[in-house]
Every structure is written in C-alpha cells, then in structure tokens.
Specification:
The complex is a heterodimer of chains A (about 200) and B (about 150). Chain A has about 200 residues and is mostly helical. In chain A, about 90% of the residues lie in helices and about 0% in strands. Chain A has five helices and no strands. In chain A, helix 2 runs antiparallel to helix 3, helix 3 (about 70-100) runs antiparallel to helix 4 and helix 4 (about 105-150) runs antiparallel to helix 5 (about 155-195). The longest helix of chain B has 23 residues, at about 40-65. Chain B has one domain (about 1-145). In chain B, helix 2 crosses helix 3, helix 3 packs antiparallel against helix 5 (about 100-110) and helix 3 crosses helix 6 (about 115-120). Chain B contains seven helices and no strands. Chain B is mostly helical and about 150 residues long. The chains are: A mainly alpha (about 200), B mainly alpha (about 150). At the A-B interface, helix 1, helix 2, helix 4 and helix 5 of A face helix 1, helix 2, helix 3, helix 4 and helix 5 of B.
Chain lengths: ~200, ~150
C-alpha cells in the first residue's frame, strides 16, 4: 500500500513539472481584478436596480402624480417602503456573504456558509412573500384615485402589474431553487466532513 | 501548487482550473492584510485554496459545464503519453468526493497530517481514518483507469 502511495506521490510531482499557468502574472492580475469588479457589481447591481426603482417611484409620485387622498399616500408609502426594505435586506445579505471567512478551517467556513444560506432561505420564503403582498396592497390602495384621473387605462396598468408579477414570481422561484440547491450542496459537504 | 490542486479538483480541465486559480488568487489577495504569522504562508494558502474550491462547486454546478472527466474522451485531446498519465491521475482524483479530493491532494503535496487536520478543522484521528480510506479508493480508481 505504502509503495503504491509513494508511486502516486511521484506521479503527482512529475505532473507538477508540466503544470504551469499559461498566463503571465500581469495578465492573471488584470483578469483577477476584472473578475473581482464584476463580482462586486453583481452583488450590488440588484440593490442599484431596486434603489433606482424606488427613486423613480418617489419622483413620479411627487412631481408627475401627487396624490391628494390619504389612502393613496399610504399606498405610495407601502410601495416605496417595500422597495427600501428589500434594498436593506440585499445590503445585509451581501455583507453577510462577504463575512464568510475563507481563512477559517473548512469545517468552520462550511458552517458559516450554511448559516448564510439558511438566512437566504428565510428571506426567500416568508419575507419575500410578505413584501410582494405589501407592494400589491400599496398599488391597490392608490388605484382608486389614479382611476379618477386616468380612467379605465388603469386596467392596463393593473394588467401590466400582473404580467410583471408573473415574471417576478418566476424569477423568485428560479432564485429560490438555485439557492436551495446550493444549500443542499453545503449540507452534503458538511456530511462529508463529519463522516 | 495552487494551479495543480485546481487541476486535480477540476479533473484535469485546464480552463476550469485556470478560472478556479484566479478565484483563489483574488481571495488570497483580498486576505493578504489579515495574514498573521500564526501559521506558515503555505498552510494559509492551502486553507484559502481548499475553502475556495468548495465554494466553487456550487458555481460550477450552476453553470453545468462539462469537464474532461465527465464529458469527453481523453483520446479526443491531443496529449503526449506523459500528459495522458497526468490527466489519468487528475481524473482519478476528480472521481473522489470533493472533500476527499482536497485532502488527498494535500497528502500528495506532502503537507503534514497535523497541518491538514488544522486546514480542514477535524481531529488528527479522524483525518487518519479518512486518509486511509481515500488512499484505498484512489488506488482502486487508478487501477481501474489503467
């Protein structure tokens, strides 16, 4: 057995001689830097889109369509508030992900990753459903006053919202499925570590 | 050392190994400020390498890329007999479970058992049991590959 392993170690050493990164160190640094930037952009992109949407809604409701009725204002607050809560959740989520410490032992890093995905599971579940429900209630509250001004075109808006809702639910489902697969993977790795 | 571990982890796929080594490089770079002389540079780099490899599994599974080990025949790739042997070794290592793959590669890198135990975060005794089992599995995989 020991001889076999020594052979394998020798093969490994031999293989090392032919293994070399084909890229120069400068190219490696620039590629690594651009990958790091795109990873940061990916993490904060979601937040930027949601924040921009909240700003557009606020500007729309202040300058283009200032609602007079209290119930409509509550609706606006629900919609904008929902988006802001989602931005805050995304921010904390990105921070939590960044806190997974790769300098810890594999077992500790896996535990941290597991906790992160359990947090994501909660976010995707009851929290997201509550936020989508609140956003929809907000829209429903301002529909009455909106209808007085723009007439039946409001149904077109509602139809568009429903369509958007279907796309949103499909996207959320996709995200949940991916992250739940990730969670399963981490549990599998943890089992490997413990057996 | 890092690139070869990536080759073994990615079953000999050079492109994927290159992607992974870049990811490790970024993580090492980002963590440079946190290096304290509590462990050797090597142990520190192994720790980041192992953890990054395991984080990478999920990304790769999501991409559903096809690796040499899973998808195409080695005969299709123009390589020298020596390289073919190396690829056979990487493929055999690649067939082990992910954690086992990383442990055996550190053994092949001749990292001490106490160091490996610290990197992985398990006891020495547990590690020895694991290594014994992995060596046996790797030997069988290599015999099967011949």
């Amino acid at each position: 057995m020991q001889n076999d392993i020594d052979d394998i170690v020798n093969q490994w050493k031999e293989a090392r001689k032919s293994v070399h990164s084909q890229e120069s160190i400068d190219k490696l640094i620039s590629t690594a830097e651009s990958r790091r930037k795109s990873s940061v952009a990916f993490h904060y992109g979601n937040m930027a889109v949601l924040s921009a949407l909240a700003v557009i809604l606020v500007l729309f409701f202040i300058y283009l369509f200032p609602f007079q009725e209290t119930i409509s204002r509550i609706g606006v607050a629900c919609m904008v508030g929902t988006l802001l809560v989602r931005v805050i959740i995304e921010y904390f989520s990105a921070r939590k992900a960044a806190r997974i410490n790769l300098l810890e032992s594999t077992l500790a890093a896996t535990d941290q990753t597991l906790k992160f995905y359990e947090f994501r599971k909660k976010i995707h579940g009851p929290v997201t459903i509550a936020l989508v429900a609140l956003y929809t209630i907000g829209l429903a509250l301002l529909t009455q006053e909106f209808r007085k001004h723009i007439g039946d075109i409001i149904f077109l808006f509602d139809a568009m919202y429903c369509l958007g809702g279907v796309v949103l639910i499909w996207q959320i489902r996709k995200g949940i499925k991916k992250e739940m697969n990730d969670l399963q993977e981490i549990i599998r790795i943890k089992t490997q570590l413990n057996t | 050392m890092v690139y070869q571990m990536c080759m073994g982890f990615m079953k000999g796929d050079r492109d994927m190994a290159s992607d992974l080594s870049q990811e490790i490089f970024i993580n090492i770079w980002n963590a440079l400020g946190q290096f304290k002389n509590e462990s050797s540079h090597k142990t520190w780099i192994y720790r980041i390498t192992v953890n990054t490899c395991l984080q990478q599994i999920r990304k790769e599974k999501n991409k559903k890329r096809v690796s040499i080990g899973e998808g195409f025949d080695l005969a299709d790739v123009p390589v020298s007999p020596a390289e073919e042997n190396h690829l056979r070794l990487y493929r055999a290592v690649g067939q082990l479970e992910e954690v086992d793959r990383l442990i055996i590669m550190m053994v092949l890198e001749e990292v001490g058992y106490d160091e490996i135990a610290r990197v992985i975060g398990i006891s020495d005794a547990n590690l020895r049991v694991k290594i014994h089992r992995i060596k046996k599995a790797l030997k069988e995989l290599l015999q099967y590959a011949e």
